C-alpha cells in the first residue's frame, strides 16, 4: 500500500505538539506524503478543507490550540476526511485526559492511537478491563485495552508497544515489526500517527490501513537499526529508510497477523 | 561573499514557524551567522533593534505572532536593517494570504521569497500575468511571476524552484544550483530566507546578494547530495556543507546567469 | 553518577523555547532520562507534581508561558524537586532580563546556568564585579561573575564557556571538557540544563552534581568530535555519545578540578 500513498502524496494536516513538528514533517516528506502544520483557529477550517487527512496530537496543548482542533475537526468531518487522534500524555494531567475525551465525543474520530497507558487513561478504568482474568502478558493487556477502547468509543484503536495492536472489535491485527531504538527518539509515536493517517487516505478498511502502516513503519525501523545502533545515527537512518523501503522489502520482512473476532 | 558573511557573523532575528526553528538555527550557525528567534510582542522591538536583519515567516501564524511581526518590522525599518518576507503557504488559506499582503503593504520589505504558487497567490491573479503568451516552460512562468510581483510590490523577488529566479525589474538572475532532495526535507525554503537575509547584511545590491546566497546554498546542496542520497543523511550532510563550502568551491560550481532587463 | 541517572530515569519537566524542544528531548532520551514538555498554565502544576525536576528556559518567552512557569515553579517548590533556570538571552531584551530576575526572586531556584553575558545581565552590573582588578583572563571573569551571582541570588551557579565554572560560594569547580563544535549547534546549552537537572535528582550536593553533569556532557562532546567534524555530523555523533558514554570513559577523560573557597 506504500506505493499508493506515494502516488497520491496526500496532504496531512497536523495540529500537533511543538516538540515533534520538525521530525513529523521530515518523516512524512521522506515517506512521500505532504505534511502541513497550522495552529490558528483563524485558518483551521480552510486548511482542513484542503487536506486529505487530519492528525490531532495533544502533546503540548494550550487553550487556543484546542479551539483550532475543534474547528479543524468539524471541517474534516464535514469534508469526510479521516481524523487520527493521538492522545499524547493522556493520564499525565487531567487537562490532557479531558481534552482527548471531548475530542472523541464531539468529533467523528476515525482512529485512536496511543500507548497502553494513554488508552487506559481515556477508558478511565484502572484495571476494569473485560476479560481481565485472561491477562497474563503485556500483549494480553494491550489487546484487552484496545478492544475495550474500540467498544467504548466506537472507533478503531491502535495500541503501540513491543507488539502493535489494531482492532475495531471485528478484526484484530498484531504487528511485531519495529525496533526498541524507536523509544529513544522523541516523536516516533507522533510521526506514526501521521503515517497511519496517510495510509487511511488510500484504503477504506481502517484496520487494514493501520496494520499496513505499522508494518511499513516497523520494517523501516528494523532496516534503520542495522545502520544506526545509537539514537542519533538511528534517527538519520530511519528517515532514510522511510524514503527507501518499498513493497518487496515490506512483504519479505512483515510480521503481521490478523485474527477475526467473533 | 560567503567570507564577508562569516566575518560579520550577522545577528538574524527570525519570527518564524514552529516546524523549522531548529533547522533554521542550525543552518545559520553552520554557515557562520548568528540566529535568534523570539515571538513575543513584548520584546520584538528591542530584538529587532539589536539585529542585523529580520526574517518574517508566516508558516504557523497566530494573532499574537502577527502583532510581534509588525512591531519587529517597524523597529527594523526604523533602524534601516533588511527584512525578508517568506510567505509560507500563501494561497492555502486567506489568513496567510491577507497577512502576507498586509506585511508587504505596511512594512518596508527588502526582499520577498517564495515558491511560484505562493508568489502567484500574493499577486492575486490566477494567470493574469504579463506576457502570458510567451510562457511555454516552468521557468518562463517563474520569471513572469517574479517580474509581476517585483513590479506590483516594488520589491526584489526570489522565486524558488528547480531554477531559482531573482529580479527587481532591472536585473534578473537565474541560479541553477541545488538538488531535488531539498524538497524532501522540511524548512529548506525557510532556512534559505535566513541565508539570503544574512547576505543582504554585507551587500547593498539586494539582487546580487540574493543571487550569491542562492548559489552558495545550491552548491552546498549539491555537495551534500554526493554524501547523503536519502533525506536523513542528506540533511546531515547539508548542514556539514553549509559549514564547509567556501569561495573557491562556489566559484567552481556556480551556475549563475545575470540578465539586464530593459 | 551517570549510572544512577540511567537507573532512576528521572522525569524532567521542561518549560522551554520552541527552537530546542526536539533536540532537548532527544538528548535526554539518549542519555537515559525521560523528558516531558508542556507550556499551558492549565496543566503546569500537575505536570510539575509528577516530575523529578523542572527546567525553566526563557528562550522564546511569551506571557502565557511565563504564567505557566510560575505555576510549575510553585508546584515544584511545594514538592521539593529541583528547579534549573536557564536565562537564555538575558540582557538581550528587558523582557527576558526582568522575567529571569522575577523567577529568581519568587521561586526557590536550585541552580542557575547561563553563559557569562547572560549571568552578568542578571547581576546588573556591567563590570562592577568583586575582585575586578584580579581579572586578567576570560576564565577569571567567568569565575568572578559566577561567584557574584551565587552570592547575590543565594543559588549555585554554572557559567558555561570554554571552561565551565560551578560555584556556590563554598566550592568552585572548573570543568575543561567539551568541544567548540557545541557552539555550532543550537540548543547545546539548553540541553545541558536538562542534563544538569537530571543529575540533581540523584545527588544532594548541587555543585558536585552539576560538575559531574558538565564532565559527562563534555566527554560526550569530545567523543562526538572524533566522529563528526562538521556541525551536522557532530550533532548526530553527539546524540550517539550521550547514549554510549559510561563511567569508565568519563573517569579516563575527565578534566574536573575542585577548589574550596574560604
Automatic annotation (TrEMBL), chains A, B, C:
Catalytic reactions of this protein: 5-(2-hydroxyethyl)-4-methylthiazole + ATP = 4-methyl-5-(2-phosphooxyethyl)-thiazole + ADP + H(+)
Residues given in the record as substrate binding sites: 37, 187
Pfam families: HK (PF02110)
InterPro entries named in the record: Hyethyz_kinase, Ribokinase-like
Keyword annotations from UniProtKB, A to Z: ATP-binding, Kinase, Magnesium, Metal-binding, Nucleotide-binding, Thiamine biosynthesis, Transferase
EC primary class: transferase
Entry's EC annotation: 2.7.1.50
Residue sites binding ATP per the record: 113, 160
Function noted in UniProt: Catalyzes the phosphorylation of the hydroxyl group of 4-methyl-5-beta-hydroxyethylthiazole (THZ).
Family (UniProt): Belongs to the Thz kinase family.
UniProt name for this protein: Hydroxyethylthiazole kinase
Organism: Aliibacillus thermotolerans
Amino acid at each position: 500500500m506504500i506505493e499508493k500513498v506515494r502516488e497520491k502524496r496526500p496532504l496531512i494536516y497536523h495540529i500537533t505538539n511543538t516538540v515533534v513538528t520538525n521530525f513529523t514533517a521530515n518523516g512524512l516528506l521522506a515517506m512521500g506524503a505532504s505534511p502541513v502544520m497550522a495552529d490558528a483557529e483563524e485558518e483551521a477550517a480552510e486548511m482542513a478543507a484542503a487536506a486529505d487527512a487530519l492528525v490531532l496530537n495533544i502533546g503540548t496543548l494550550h487553550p487556543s490550540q484546542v479551539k483550532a482542533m475543534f474547528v479543524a475537526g468539524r471541517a474534516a468531518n464535514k469534508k469526510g476526511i479521516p481524523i487520527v487522534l493521538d492522545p499524547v500524555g493522556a493520564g499525565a494531567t487531567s487537562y490532557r485526559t479531558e481534552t482527548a475525551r471531548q475530542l472523541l465525543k464531539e468529533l467523528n474520530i476515525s482512529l485512536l492511537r496511543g500507548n497502553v497507558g494513554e488508552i487506559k487513561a481515556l477508558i478511565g478504568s484502572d484495571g476494569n478491563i473485560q476479560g481481565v482474568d485472561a491477562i497474563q502478558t503485556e500483549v494480553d493487556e494491550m489487546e484487552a485495552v484496545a478492544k475495550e477502547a474500540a467498544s467504548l468509543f466506537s472507533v478503531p484503536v491502535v495500541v503501540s508497544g513491543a507488539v502493535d495492536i489494531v482492532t475495531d472489535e471485528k478484526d484484530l491485527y498484531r504487528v511485531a515489526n519495529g525496533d526498541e531504538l524507536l523509544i529513544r527518539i522523541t516523536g516516533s509515536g507522533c510521526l506514526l500517527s501521521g503515517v497511519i493517517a496517510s495510509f487511511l487516505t488510500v484504503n477504506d478498511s481502517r484496520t487494514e490501513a493501520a496494520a499496513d502502516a505499522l508494518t511499513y513503519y516497523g520494517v523501516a525501523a528494523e532496516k534503520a537499526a542495522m545502520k544506526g545502533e545509537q539514537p542519533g545515527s538511528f534517527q538519520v537512518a530511519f528517515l532514510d529508510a522511510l524514503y527507501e523501503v518499498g513493497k518487496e522489502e515490506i512483504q519479505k520482512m512483515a510480521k503481521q497477523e490478523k485474527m477475526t473476532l467473533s
